[in-house]
Amino acid sequence: MPAATSSPLSSEQLAAVELANRRAAPLRSAERVATWDIWMLAAAAVFSLVFAALDPGALLAAVVLAGAAAIEHRGRRQLEALEESGVRLLALNQLGLMVLLILYSLVGIAELLSAGSGQALLAAEPSLQAALDHDPTARAALGGAADWARDLALLVYAALACAALLVQGGLAYFYWSRARRLRELLSETEPWILELLQRSRSGMG
């Protein structure tokens, strides 16, 4: 019968390693969330880039989203190294993205409201206005369609602002709440265990 393999660590040391692993669990969950967010931001950047030829604003959106993905990746790597700056960077990245998305939505809403009704939008196109002067029915139909499109765009902008507040704001709070867990881990864990955790986490990343 083969002899049981004994651990080079004492029972007290094994218990300390297990406790450190439990304390690091919330940090690993934050890393998984950051990984998911990196992929989502990168996908959104690529999607925006597809429409850059039609809308110059889409190119700017692609650059902003790609930058946010890069910052998120950097923050995740810092968190994997058990650096508290990683938590701050992840939280601030989400807050910055939230502010930009809300500002973008508010500017879009302001532009739509300042443009006026569907009839006013039609009046801003002289060539179309001249063609519709002889067809009141078509003019009314197009004006109604323009009103519907404007209301839909307003709804989309409002939904984007609300989503940014909930999603990016929620992620910022989620990351920031991990700062206390990380400080506890760093202050109450022996250096050799922290080094062991860093090696295992960098290996998984």
Q: What's the count of strands?
A: 0
Give a short account of the largest sheet.
none
> SS-based structural class?
mainly alpha
Distance between the termini: 39 Å
Helix content: over 70%
The arrangement of helices and strands along the chain is HHHHHHH
Estimate the strand proportion.
under 5%
The radius of gyration is 26 Å
Q: Which descriptor suits the 3D outline?
A: elongated
Stretches with pLDDT under 50, minimum 5 residues: none
Q: How would you state the average pLDDT, rounded? A: 83
The tally of helices reads 7
Please give a structural write-up.
The protein has 205 residues and is an all-alpha fold. It has a domain at 22-115 and 163-198. The protein contains 7 helices and no strands. It has helices at 11-50, 56-80, 84-115, 118-123, 126-132, 136-188, 191-204. The longest helix has 53 residues, at 136-188. It is elongated and about 90 Å long. The model has no long low-confidence stretch (mean pLDDT 83).
Compile the SSE list and pairings:
Blueprint: H1 11-50, H2 56-80, H3 84-115, H4 118-123, H5 126-132, H6 136-188, H7 191-204
